[in-house]
């Protein structure tokens, strides 16, 4: 292990490895890159515990563009991430996302649809009658409108994407360092080094915060405030006796979502606000399913009245407390300290675009492919939130 790198990336999950890959793959860069990961087993990593879905149904063009690039990248993963000719199979399925709205939310879906279609997203609005014909297993009671992604939406193997980024980056010469970051040295408005808990000091020209649920702690080490919390999200796996042909990922007006997972289903929902702290705890809260999720599931799909939970897990959700959108790019005063944080539940799908954008910024000083300036840190301190109405 060297004691100096041009770029040190704090966090070896999907974000950190994506930035590393795009830097190492950029023929105009030519610098040295190190990724520091505190837990190489990834047992508690967001990338390993995510439901790993991808959609274009956002309400902001910047988010739509990020996910569109992510979709193209995932569809062509072998072309981008193969090492020694190996197939990279991310298990992408594209049955779509289906947002359901009551009368109170129908106009939001209509406004979002206009934005999505203007950005090239293949999304259709469906009346309750249309929904009943297309999905006869779905109850449309209380539903005024649905929004269905006809292509380019679904789910994939997020852990395999992270590992493929990591493997390819390593093959391209990126140093993968197992260690916990304990401090960040700064001088004259710049990061000068990243210090590890074992005493190792890594001097650097650029430091990237890709620390996921620990992003706020890493930012604090550099004297920077970052309003990104580590929230917990529980996912439940259940059996259903009946098949649901053509089932997409469904988001109920209650906030409960579900989708197929092999022959079973998975579901989740944001917990009540008074049960959603910044936490390191990943204990599954089974009462959330019994009291909140199951009633909503049974009301929306009659076949879900008789289901059996077979498994459950909890993972971290890096929640931007200001506007639930990513923070990407440099700190305005500590210019060589870059953020790749706070994706608030859509990080895996946006990792390819965020990684490419940050790599271009580091290598050339500007965004060339995707303009990610909408996600800049400055908006947080200038009270210019990037409002997104499709947060789940």
Automatic annotation (TrEMBL):
InterPro entries: FAD-dep_OxRdtase, FAD/NAD-bd_sf
FAD dependent oxidoreductase domain mapped to chain residues: 6-361
RNA-binding found in the keyword field: no
Pfam families: DAO
Protein name: FAD-dependent oxidoreductase
Keyword Oxidoreductase: yes
Keywords, ordered alphabetically: Oxidoreductase
SUPFAM superfamilies tied to this protein: FAD/NAD(P)-binding domain
Domain of life per record: Bacteria
């Amino acid at each position: 292990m060297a004691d100096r790198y041009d770029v040190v990336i704090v966090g070896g999950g999907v974000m950190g490895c994506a930035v590393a890959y795009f830097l190492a793959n950029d023929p105009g860069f030519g610098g040295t890159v190190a990724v520091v990961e505190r837990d190489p087993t990834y047992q508690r990593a967001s990338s390993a515990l995510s439901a790993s879905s991808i959609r274009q149904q956002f309400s902001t063009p910047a988010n739509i563009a990020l996910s569109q690039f992510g979709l193209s990248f995932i569809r062509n993963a072998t072309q981008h991430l193969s090492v020694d000719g190996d197939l990279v199979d991310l298990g992408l399925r594209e049955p779509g996302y289906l947002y359901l709205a009551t009368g109170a939310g129908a106009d939001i879906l209509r406004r979002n649809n206009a934005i999505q279609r203007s950005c090239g997203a293949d999304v259709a609005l469906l009346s309750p009658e249309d929904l009943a014909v297309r999905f006869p297993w779905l109850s449309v009671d209380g539903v005024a409108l649905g929004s269905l992604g006809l292509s380019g939406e679904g789910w994939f193997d997020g852990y395999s994407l992270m590992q493929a980024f990591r493997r390819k980056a390593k093959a391209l010469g990126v140093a993968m360092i197992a260690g916990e970051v304990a401090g960040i040295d700064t001088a004259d408005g710049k990061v000068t080094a990243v210090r590890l808990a074992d005493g190792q000091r890594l001097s650097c020209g650029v430091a990237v915060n890709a620390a996921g649920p620990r992003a706020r702690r890493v930012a604090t080490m550099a004297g920077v405030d970052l309003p990104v919390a580590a929230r917990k999200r529980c996912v439940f796996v259940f059996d259903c006796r009946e098949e649901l042909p053509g089932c997409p990922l469904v988001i109920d007006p209650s906030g409960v979502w579900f989708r197929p997972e092999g022959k079973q289903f998975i579901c989740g929902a944001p917990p009540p606000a008074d049960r959603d702290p910044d936490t390191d705890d990943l204990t599954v809260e089974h009462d959330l399913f019994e009291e909140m999720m199951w009633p909503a599931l049974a009301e929306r799909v009659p076949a879900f009245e008789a289901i059996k939970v077979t498994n459950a897990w909890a993972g971290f959700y890096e929640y931007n407390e200001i506007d639930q959108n990513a923070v990407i790019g440099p700190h305005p005063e500590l210019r060589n300290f870059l953020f790749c944080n706070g994706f608030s539940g859509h990080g895996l799908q946006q990792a390819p675009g965020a990684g490419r954008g940050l790599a271009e910024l580091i290598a050339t000083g500007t965004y060339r492919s995707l303009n990610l300036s909408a996600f800049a840190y400055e908006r947080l301190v200038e009270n210019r939130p990037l409002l997104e109405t499709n947060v789940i």
